[in-house]
Amino acid sequence: MEFDKMQTFEREAEILKVLGHPVRLKIVAGLMSNSCNVKKIWECLGLPQATVSQHLALLKNKQIIQGRRDGVEVFYQVVCPEARRIVGALFEQISCQ
């Protein structure tokens, strides 16, 4: 197998591991259509702010999401095309059932 393809599989596998947690999957799915600030994310999930921040930090670290500061608020959006494709395919299958 070509080296480039192997790197692609490794990146996709890493993304799948990160998205394997229900909270992170919900965050990415929710950010697919538009950006959102941290407060709105933790209110929508019904989880403590600290918990959501830990998940956001991991998603940022893995370059799946990116934050944009607007005053004192930080708005997040999905920037990883592989994650968009994976989550999009997953929810397309769910909606077809």
Question: What features would you highlight for this structure?
Answer:
DNA-binding, 3-stranded antiparallel β-sheet, alpha+beta, 3 strands, 97 residues, DNA-binding transcription factor activity, WH-like_DNA-bd_sf
What does this structure look like?
- With 97 residues, the protein is an alpha+beta fold.
- It has a single domain (3-96), classed as Arc Repressor Mutant, subunit A.
- It has five helices and three strands, in the order ααβααββα.
- It has a three-stranded antiparallel beta sheet with strand order 1-3-2.
- A hairpin with a 2-residue loop joins strand 2 and strand 3.
- Helix 1 (3-19) packs across helix 5 (81-96) and helix 3 (38-45) packs across helix 4.
- The protein is globular and about 45 Å long.
- 19% of the residues are buried.
- The model has no long low-confidence stretch (mean pLDDT 89).
Under CATH, the homologous superfamily reads Winged helix-like DNA-binding domain superfamily/Winged helix DNA-binding domain
Secondary structure class reads alpha+beta
Instruction: Give the N-to-C terminal Cα separation.
Output: 35 Å
Mean pLDDT: 89
Write down the secondary-structure element order.
HHEHHEEH
- The percent of residues in helical segments reads 55-70%
Looking at the overall shape, the CATH architecture is Orthogonal Bundle
Oligomeric nature of the chains: single chain
E-strand count: 3
Query: How would you describe the shape?
Result: globular
| Main beta sheet | 3 strands, antiparallel
Strand order of the largest sheet: 1-3-2
The residue ranges in which pLDDT falls below 50 over 5 or more consecutive positions are none
Number of domains: 1
Continuous helix count: 5
Instruction: Please give the CATH class.
Output: Mainly Alpha
Cα-atom radius of gyration: 14 Å
The CATH topology name reads Arc Repressor Mutant, subunit A
